[in-house]
Every structure is written in C-alpha cells, then in structure tokens.
Design brief:
Blueprint lengths: L3 E2 L5 E2 L18 E6 L5 H10 L3 E7 L14 E2 L2 H6 L4 E4 L6 H10 L3 E5 L6 H13 L4 E4 L6 H11 L6 E9 L11 H17 L3 E9 L9 E8 L4 E7 L6 E8 L2 E6 L4 E7 L7 H7 L3 E6 L7 H14 L8 H20 L3 E2 L1
Parallel strand pairs: 3-4, 3-6, 4-5, 6-7, 7-8, 9-12
Antiparallel strand pairs: 1-2, 9-13, 10-11, 10-17, 11-12, 13-14, 14-15, 15-16
Helix pairs in contact: 3-4, 4-9, 5-6, 6-9
GO molecular function: nucleotide binding
Protein name: Dehydrogenase
InterPro entries: Gfo/Idh/MocA-like_OxRdtase_N, Gfo/Idh/MocA_Oxidoreductases, GFO_IDH_MocA-like_dom, NAD(P)-bd_dom_sf
C-alpha cells in the first residue's frame, strides 16, 4: 500500500484496503441492513431497503418510536448499540444531523459499512472524524446526497462528460419551497443548499475555490431560512445558488450554461432540456431584440426515470460488495460541508471566503 492523503490534504500513513463483502448482497445471500432513524426520511429508506434486491432490513432503531409505522414485525430498538447487537453488515443513518457523528462513529467502531444521510455531520471537523474512522477501518462510508441519483442530473452529467455543451461557463441552481415540518435542528444552508453545493461540484467536475453569500431569518427561527450565494469553481466556472423555505411553490432547477447553449435540469419532474445556441439569425428586429439572435433549437430528452432513493441504495449495496464505486464518499461529503461552512462564514462576516 502507498501513501494516502488525509482529508486536510496532508500526507498520512497508508490506510487499509476496504473490506468488501464480495460473497453477500445477492438475492440468495443479502446484506443484513440496520436502519436508525424512523422519521420523515427513515420511513422512505425502510421501504426502499426492503425493496432492494440483495438487501434485507433486519433491525430498526429510534428512541422516539415509530410514528410512521414502518417497523412492521421488527422491534423498534432504543439506540445504535442495540442496532449493532442485531448483527449487521451495513447500516443506514437517518437521525437528526446533530446525532450523525456519534451514531456513525459507533457503527464504524463495530465494523459496519454505513451510509449517513446528508450532511455527513453537524460541522466539517466532525465530518472529518467520521470519514477518518471508516477509512482507518477499511469500511465503506457513504453520504446520502440523493440528488446525484436524480435522472435529470444523471443525464446532464453524462452529456457534459460527452462534451455536448463544450466548455462549461456557469452553473445556476434554484431550490425553494414552503417550510418543511421535518426539519428542526439545522437551517436551510445545511438542509437544502448542501444538495446544490454537492451536485454543482459533481456535475461540473470541479471544486469550489471561493463563495460569497447572504442569509436571512424571516420565520422567527434561530437558523437561517433564505440564502443567496455566488461562487467560483476551478477553471473559472461561476456559480449561483438561490435557496429558501419561504416560497409558496416548490422549485428544483439546475441550469448549466456553456459554449454550445444551456442544459436545464428539473429535478422535481426528472426532465432535462437543452437550449442550443442558434445558427440562424433573425431579420425581424423586434423579435431579435427580445429573444436574442443566438437562440436555437430546444430539445427535451426522453430519459428513463427511476426513483432516486432506490438507485442510491443500490449504489451503496454495490460499493459494499466491491462491484462498483458510484456512491458519494465521505471525503466528498466533508468537501461539501467545507463549502457549506464557508457560505455561513461569508454570510455572518459579509465577505468572500476562499477555499
């Protein structure tokens, strides 16, 4: 084994190889999966895990009980230690963000491959501790950034990788809607904007180098409920994010503009549309002034649409088996949390933050 690079960029001693469960994760020999957190997200994870070939939900835990009735015939265990005692190959963590670190560290100590709902932890320092714990034990550690499994964004990434847009100039995201009753422990930046930060870096294939942001507190809560941010990625790609909990309609849009036009991904509907730069100039001056002389064809692609959460669990299963590496790694989760914290710092100190 060679030298590894730590999450802070410093050289470290070599880490152990990941201990994949190559003989498990099939219909005949499924992974024994435990789920902790049976709230708004946990109930969906329970449903999807049960429906995923090669995974068997064998234990659930939530100290608050099972208000959505997803446990079925399984007893509702009181904590992560009782969950571990059930004998697990893998686990899904869907507890409130403030508990991510403690629960994940207990699972790592027990040798359980784990996916943690986003964000990886309540702050970047905790995220680094979690990521290091799994890496040092040769375990698969994943973070639940489910937007990467959205059909519109997957098709967008494939077309960008194929060069269909040419050079990427800008990534713009809008994620807004009414306040969600499910959130009580974090603000809109860590709950929603974290999705846009992760997907932007992933779609563009470039990391953030700076961000500048503003937030507001309009609903009387301690944490922020509106955010606007701009930033710069490697290669000079400019980004813009608009996120809030106070809009009376729901919107989830990602627009990537480049030298050949613009892709528009609607992750609510799973649709991807391409607006091409035109090659036919308009001689009708009034129309040209309004629409722009370079507006060309518009194409809405027919793409297969699967439930993103189902694909996310399959990716996690395959990572544990060692047959594919399509999951969001904990190192990526920490990198996203670094940008999230830079956004909050920028807003509180009214300055641009370099990364």
């Amino acid at each position: 084994m060679g030298e590894n690079v730590a999450l802070d960029g410093q050289a470290t001693t070599a880490l152990p190889e990941v201990h994949h469960l190559t003989d498990k994760g099939t219909a005949d020999n499924p992974l024994r999966v435990g789920l902790i957190g049976l709230g708004s997200m946990g109930r969906h994870h329970a449903r999807v895990i049960r429906a995923t070939e090669g995974m068997e939900l064998v234990a659930v835990a939530d100290p608050g009980g099972d208000r959505f009735g997803v446990a079925g015939e399984l007893p509702v265990l009181p904590d992560v230690h009782a969950l571990i005692d059930a004998g697990l190959d893998a686990a899904m963590v869907a507890v409130p963000t403030v508990y991510h670190e403690d629960v994940a560290l207990a699972l790592a100590e027990a040798g359980v491959h784990t996916m943690v709902e986003k964000p990886i932890a309540h702050d970047a320092a905790a995220g680094r501790r979690v990521a290091a714990a799994f890496a040092e034990r040769g375990l698969v550690g994943a973070v639940g950034y489910v937007e990467r499994c959205n059909p519109a964004l997957r098709a967008l990434r494939e077309r960008l990788d194929a060069g269909e847009l040419g050079e990427v100039y800008q990534v713009l995201t809008r994620r807004q809607g009414p306040f969600p009753a499910r959130i009580s422990d974090v603000g809109v930046v860590k709950d929603l904007a974290t999705h846009d930060i992760d997907l932007t870096a992933w779609v563009a294939g470039a990391r953030y180098t700076s961000v500048a942001a503003q937030v507001t507190h309009r609903s009387g809560r301690q944490t922020e409920d509106m955010m606007v941010a701009t930033g710069l990625l490697e290669g000079g790609i400019v980004v813009s994010h608009q996120v809030n909990w106070l809009t009376p309609f729901k919107e989830r849009v990602t627009i990537v503009t480049g030298e050949k036009g613009a892709f528009v991904a609607d992750t609510l509907t799973g649709d991807l549309t391409f607006h091409a730069n035109g090659t036919v100039a308009s001689t009708w001056d009034q129309v040209a002034a309004f629409r722009g002389v370079s507006e060309g064809d518009v194409i809405r692609y027919a793409i297969p649409k699967r439930e993103p959460l189902a694909l996310e669990q399959e990716n996690f299963r395959d990572a544990v088996r060692g047959v594919a590496q399509r999951h969001v790694t904990m190192a990526e989760g920490v990198a996203t949390l670094d940008v999230v914290e830079a956004v909050l710092t920028s807003a509180s100190e009214n300055r641009t933050v370099a990364l």
